[in-house]
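From the shared-data thread, chain only:
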Amino acid sequence: MKEILAYYRDDLAAAEEIINGNIHSTIKVIPELSSYIFESGGKRFRPLLVIASAALCGYRGPKAHVAACVAEYIHTATLLHDDVVDESDTRRGRASANNIWGNEASVLVGDFLLARAFQMMVQNLDSQSLQVMAQACMHLAEGEILQLLKSFDVGTTVEDYYSIIFGKTAALISACCEVGALISGEEGARREALKRYGQEIGYAFQIVDDCLDVVGNPEKTGKPLGNDLKEGKLTLPILLALERSTREEKKKVRDALLADEFKPQLFVQVREVVEKYRGVEQARERAREHAARAIEYLEVFEDGLEREYLIAMARFIVERDM
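Structure, as tokens:
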């Protein structure tokens, strides 16, 4: 990843300048809260995908930088909203925005970032790119609503899980790659290939994140282990383990999910079930399968450094440290 970031350093710097330069407002809390969240150590993964996808199609220029900013604004708005819905106290290892400024300000600044993103698209991008990003925002909302409806639901299925992560993660990542193609003037098979590439790595990305919630290093992830279960989310490692578990083991998971007060020992008993049936290993193998399919979609492009970097990014996603 260091080599990739170095290769796109100037493009990412240009996008960062746009990100920081468009949060101005006469209302003081908007730039204050926005700056706080943008400076909190985000990976800028979605802006990188816009830039790298456009470069694969032969374009490196200002439209990619604007689209990269748009992607980061939309993503950040969803994080602000998520922390309110999930009642989170931390984000990326430090106090969440809602913990400092309150829920109301976090929601409304998230709305501001969404509005600014669409304003920038209308002013700088084509109607097809606008349509793709608008549809991604719709899917984001659907994914978050479905996740809310499935919270603390012991009947959640693997199919439900995929519907949730398509909306909350894969849809926007897919849109980033597709817009990269569109601003380069690509249509047809190459645009579709990047769209599908993005969707597959989006699945892989979220699955690995959910594995990290079970066995990751909290110092790296920025959140305590078992946070998803505490919030009532049955993620893929748990769901795959439940498919093979005994009735008594299912009851342990159910009791932990529905407990009046979530305690560390409840997560421990759920993790024991996940470890027994290799839920994390199975989930990570699925992530690898998604990454492999993503790489296959890139076969319509000629060999070159840009293609190799997108392949490397797909592989990096699934090999992140547990």
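Residues 188-215 form the longest helix (28 residues).
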